[in-house]
Hints:
Blueprint: E1 5-10, E2 12-13, E3 25-26, H1 29-43, E4 53-58, H2 66-77, E5 85-88, H3 97-107
Parallel strand pairs: 1-4, 2-3, 4-5
Helix pairs in contact: 1-2, 2-3
Amino acid sequence: xxxxxxxxxxxxxxxxxxxxxxxxxxxxxxxxxxxxxxxxxxxxxxxxxxxxxxxxxxxxxxxxxxxxxxxxxxxxxxxxxxxxxxxxxxxxxxxxxxxxxxxxxxxx
Length: 108
């Protein structure tokens, strides 16, 4: 059976909610940079399938700064050529016009 979906976990949050059971840590730029570097290494080892969905969850993926979000979306670009559905969890407090612009540029 061919894998048709990709889940990317971004474990960083600006605050930790007591009700959330997901793996998460407080956002730290240096740790986030290291995490994205390792994620890129892991993604480069995955065969590039024709994916149907890409889901970016967390944590709070929108906690990444603009440069980090741009890097993440760039890493996923090669997997997204025929994707039918993209989804990314966001916190309205950490999402802004510039981050939406990054997502639009990468997904359309």
